Amino acid sequence: MKNYQASIKTPFAHLGLHIVDSRLAAIDFIELEDEIKPADAATEGIRDRIRRFLENPLTSNCREIPCSVTGTPFQVKVWNELSAIPAGQVVTYGAIAEKLGTSARAVGNACRRNPIPVVVPCHRVVSSAGKGGYAGHTGGDMVRFKTWLLGREGVSIN
Prior knowledge:
It is globular and about 40 Å long. About 35% of the residues lie in helices and about 15% in strands. The protein starts with 5 loop residues before the first strand and ends in a 6-residue tail after the last helix. It has helices at about 40-55, 75-85, 95-100, 105-110, 140-150, and strands at about 5-10, 15-20, 25-30, 90, 125. The strands form 2 sheets. It has a 3-stranded antiparallel β-sheet with strand order 1-2-3, covered by helices on one side. A two-stranded parallel sheet has the order 4-5. By secondary structure, it is an alpha+beta fold. It has 2 domains: about 5-55, no CATH class; about 75-150, Arc Repressor Mutant, subunit A.
């Protein structure tokens, strides 16, 4: 288990925030009863921005959050595409794949490896036949969390 500098409880998930050098490095879905209070002012700022986004994603965004993520050049390219999807809109895996000259499955795999879900909004990527999966899951709590995130943004997909 990572050392989390803060956490946020939502109706469908408890998010553990891993901060490195005052930058968001990872968000994990964790199982803890109580929230972890921010370790310092920078962490508190990151936590508060994510919390504001979760409360009202149409008037707040996560783009200004300082992040430090690592991935392959292809993953970073996909994550940059995800970050450009506005709140309240969805894009299919296939549309991103076409834009990047790759396959929908490769885009899905990059989404699955996204170290900072919510901030890099992989929940806004859907399959051509419906909602699709979330964080490598095709059912259960993770897909319910995707549904909750999309619903907060005014999007309803079966």
